[in-house]
Amino acid sequence: MSKPMLLADFVRLPPTVRGDVVEGLAAAIDIVAERGPPSHRFLRFGWYAAALAAYGGAARTLVVEEDGAPVVALPFVGHRRFGVAAVPGCRWPFRSVGVALGATDAALRIALVTLAAQINGLRLGPIRDGDPAATALIAIARAQGWIALERTPGRAAPTPLDDRAFWRAAVADPVLARMIRLSEASIDGAGGAIAIETGDGIYRAARNASGQPIPSLESAPTREWLLLRPGLPALLGRVFGWVWMRTGRPHW
pTM of the predicted model, to two decimals? Predict the structure, then answer.
């Protein structure tokens, strides 16, 4: 009579991890957003699509899967000849990437290896200090020999209420429409407020009747990052990176 095997007797194999870059915005963006931290669940397909509609650009998306399930979704736009890309989006409340809760370091390593075959550098931000997705990605990048340069914006960016084109495109996504609150005054340019309700948190921005922005209670220090892949890009970053770090800009 054979002895039954207990669950503890089975060897757990590491997850199968694969990365790929696809043209356009991948449907996996929404899957990863729903599996990510509640504070980042507005970073959906419709959010990035609104940025492309408002600011232009042709996107590609890095998708990393673990055991067939998407755990990283990183859309990027940029100059293919020079190989420096940026994550699209709106500066407010921040620009970040989609990383599912529980994604392993192996997934982030594969993400960077896959990116290194496509681009020389990646611009992230502005990103709030302590952003879980960006912090993990930057740490893995440094461990793999990437150079991570950081800077703070050189001057205050315009209030998010000024970008009517972006917000009109964003609310075309019914899920985002349920998260975003726009006052009528913010549409005609005389005062107004905007809020994004995501998970248990809320991001708010407002301006008074004269059109001046009112700081949000949810404001936090932000940084912009430039990740340069190992090799010549990283070498150039070591030599000339100080130039980029000293030139903060409110627009991309």
Answer: 0.85
